[in-house]
Design a protein that fits this description.
The structure is a homodimer. By secondary structure, the first copy, chain A, is α+β, with helices and mostly antiparallel strands. The first copy, chain A, has a single domain (2-77), classed as 2-Layer Sandwich (Mth169, Chain: A), CATH 3.30.1280. The first copy, chain A, contains two helices and three strands; from the N terminus they run βαβαβ. A three-stranded antiparallel sheet of chain A has the order 2-1-3. The A-B interface holds A 6-8, 18, 21, 24-25, 30, 32-47, 49, 57, 61, 65-66 and B 6-8, 18, 21, 24-25, 30, 32-47, 49, 57, 61, 65-66. Strand 2 (33-46) of chain A pairs antiparallel with strand 2 of chain B, so a sheet runs across the interface.
Chain lengths: 79, 79
Protein backbone atom coordinates (compact mmCIF):
# COMPACT_ATOMS: atom_id res chain seq x y z
CA UNK A 1 0.00 0.00 0.00
CA UNK A 2 1.05 3.55 -0.70
CA UNK A 3 1.18 6.35 1.85
CA UNK A 4 2.68 9.80 2.06
CA UNK A 5 4.15 11.93 4.78
CA UNK A 6 4.50 15.70 4.42
CA UNK A 7 7.13 17.36 6.57
CA UNK A 8 6.97 21.16 6.77
CA UNK A 9 8.52 23.85 8.91
CA UNK A 10 6.36 25.12 11.74
CA UNK A 11 4.91 28.62 11.22
CA UNK A 12 7.44 31.21 12.31
CA UNK A 13 10.48 29.04 11.61
CA UNK A 14 12.81 30.69 9.11
CA UNK A 15 13.02 28.87 5.77
CA UNK A 16 16.08 30.23 3.91
CA UNK A 17 15.63 27.87 0.96
CA UNK A 18 12.04 29.03 0.47
CA UNK A 19 13.03 32.68 0.85
CA UNK A 20 15.72 32.28 -1.78
CA UNK A 21 13.27 30.76 -4.26
CA UNK A 22 10.70 33.47 -3.44
CA UNK A 23 13.19 36.31 -3.98
CA UNK A 24 14.45 34.78 -7.17
CA UNK A 25 10.92 34.53 -8.57
CA UNK A 26 10.10 38.10 -7.52
CA UNK A 27 13.29 39.38 -9.14
CA UNK A 28 12.43 37.54 -12.34
CA UNK A 29 9.04 39.00 -13.08
CA UNK A 30 6.80 36.95 -10.79
CA UNK A 31 5.73 39.80 -8.52
CA UNK A 32 2.55 37.95 -7.58
CA UNK A 33 4.46 35.37 -5.57
CA UNK A 34 4.20 36.52 -1.95
CA UNK A 35 5.89 33.72 -0.09
CA UNK A 36 7.42 30.28 -0.68
CA UNK A 37 8.08 27.58 1.86
CA UNK A 38 9.77 24.31 1.07
CA UNK A 39 9.12 21.01 2.79
CA UNK A 40 9.63 17.33 2.23
CA UNK A 41 7.32 14.82 0.63
CA UNK A 42 8.07 11.24 1.63
CA UNK A 43 6.34 8.48 -0.32
CA UNK A 44 6.12 5.07 1.32
CA UNK A 45 5.45 1.70 -0.21
CA UNK A 46 4.30 -0.52 2.67
CA UNK A 47 3.31 -4.16 2.90
CA UNK A 48 -0.44 -4.56 3.09
CA UNK A 49 -1.70 -3.98 6.61
CA UNK A 50 -4.74 -2.46 8.28
CA UNK A 51 -5.04 1.25 7.71
CA UNK A 52 -4.81 2.07 11.42
CA UNK A 53 -1.61 0.06 11.77
CA UNK A 54 -0.03 1.84 8.80
CA UNK A 55 -1.04 5.19 10.23
CA UNK A 56 0.52 4.46 13.60
CA UNK A 57 3.69 3.07 11.98
CA UNK A 58 4.12 6.21 9.91
CA UNK A 59 3.31 8.51 12.81
CA UNK A 60 5.94 6.78 14.93
CA UNK A 61 8.57 6.84 12.19
CA UNK A 62 7.84 10.46 11.29
CA UNK A 63 7.89 11.85 14.79
CA UNK A 64 11.04 9.98 15.79
CA UNK A 65 13.10 10.01 12.58
CA UNK A 66 11.78 12.01 9.65
CA UNK A 67 10.73 15.28 11.25
CA UNK A 68 12.62 17.40 13.75
CA UNK A 69 9.92 18.07 16.35
CA UNK A 70 11.53 21.34 17.43
CA UNK A 71 11.08 23.09 14.08
CA UNK A 72 8.98 20.80 11.89
CA UNK A 73 5.51 19.30 11.79
CA UNK A 74 4.32 16.37 9.71
CA UNK A 75 1.10 15.06 8.27
CA UNK A 76 0.39 11.46 7.29
CA UNK A 77 -1.84 10.93 4.26
CA UNK A 78 -3.23 7.67 3.01
CA UNK A 79 -5.24 7.25 -0.19
CA UNK B 1 -4.18 32.33 -2.27
CA UNK B 2 -2.38 29.18 -1.32
CA UNK B 3 -1.08 26.55 -3.73
CA UNK B 4 1.28 23.62 -3.59
CA UNK B 5 3.70 22.02 -5.99
CA UNK B 6 4.96 18.47 -5.50
CA UNK B 7 8.27 17.61 -7.14
CA UNK B 8 9.16 13.91 -7.28
CA UNK B 9 11.70 11.77 -9.07
CA UNK B 10 10.46 10.05 -12.19
CA UNK B 11 9.92 6.28 -11.85
CA UNK B 12 13.20 4.48 -12.44
CA UNK B 13 15.38 7.35 -11.28
CA UNK B 14 17.61 6.32 -8.39
CA UNK B 15 16.77 8.05 -5.10
CA UNK B 16 19.72 7.52 -2.73
CA UNK B 17 18.18 9.60 0.05
CA UNK B 18 15.00 7.53 -0.04
CA UNK B 19 16.96 4.27 -0.17
CA UNK B 20 18.97 5.30 2.86
CA UNK B 21 15.83 6.06 4.86
CA UNK B 22 14.25 2.80 3.68
CA UNK B 23 17.26 0.68 4.68
CA UNK B 24 17.53 2.43 8.02
CA UNK B 25 13.89 1.71 8.79
CA UNK B 26 14.21 -1.93 7.70
CA UNK B 27 17.31 -2.36 9.85
CA UNK B 28 15.47 -0.88 12.83
CA UNK B 29 12.51 -3.20 13.02
CA UNK B 30 10.23 -1.75 10.34
CA UNK B 31 10.34 -4.74 7.98
CA UNK B 32 6.98 -3.77 6.49
CA UNK B 33 8.47 -0.74 4.77
CA UNK B 34 9.12 -1.83 1.18
CA UNK B 35 10.31 1.36 -0.42
CA UNK B 36 10.74 5.06 0.34
CA UNK B 37 11.07 7.91 -2.11
CA UNK B 38 11.69 11.49 -1.11
CA UNK B 39 10.49 14.52 -3.00
CA UNK B 40 9.92 18.21 -2.44
CA UNK B 41 6.79 19.96 -1.31
CA UNK B 42 6.72 23.66 -2.24
CA UNK B 43 4.03 25.81 -0.67
CA UNK B 44 3.18 29.09 -2.41
CA UNK B 45 1.41 32.13 -1.10
CA UNK B 46 0.22 34.03 -4.18
CA UNK B 47 -1.64 37.28 -4.65
CA UNK B 48 -5.29 36.69 -5.48
CA UNK B 49 -5.75 35.89 -9.15
CA UNK B 50 -7.94 33.66 -11.27
CA UNK B 51 -7.35 29.97 -10.67
CA UNK B 52 -6.31 29.32 -14.27
CA UNK B 53 -3.73 32.10 -14.12
CA UNK B 54 -2.26 30.73 -10.90
CA UNK B 55 -2.10 27.27 -12.39
CA UNK B 56 -0.24 28.46 -15.48
CA UNK B 57 2.13 30.61 -13.37
CA UNK B 58 3.01 27.64 -11.18
CA UNK B 59 3.33 25.28 -14.12
CA UNK B 60 5.75 27.67 -15.83
CA UNK B 61 7.79 28.26 -12.67
CA UNK B 62 7.90 24.55 -11.83
CA UNK B 63 8.90 23.31 -15.26
CA UNK B 64 11.57 25.94 -15.74
CA UNK B 65 13.00 26.40 -12.25
CA UNK B 66 11.79 24.06 -9.52
CA UNK B 67 11.92 20.67 -11.21
CA UNK B 68 14.70 19.18 -13.29
CA UNK B 69 12.74 17.86 -16.30
CA UNK B 70 15.34 15.18 -17.02
CA UNK B 71 14.78 13.31 -13.75
CA UNK B 72 11.82 14.90 -12.00
CA UNK B 73 8.11 15.44 -12.50
CA UNK B 74 5.86 17.90 -10.73
CA UNK B 75 2.21 18.28 -9.87
CA UNK B 76 0.42 21.54 -9.11
CA UNK B 77 -2.34 21.40 -6.50
CA UNK B 78 -4.74 24.17 -5.57
CA UNK B 79 -7.28 23.97 -2.78
Amino acid sequence: MKARVYVTYKPGVLDPQGQTVCQFLQNHGQAKVRDVRIGKLIEFDLEDMPRAEAESLLTEVSSSLLANPVIETFRVEMP
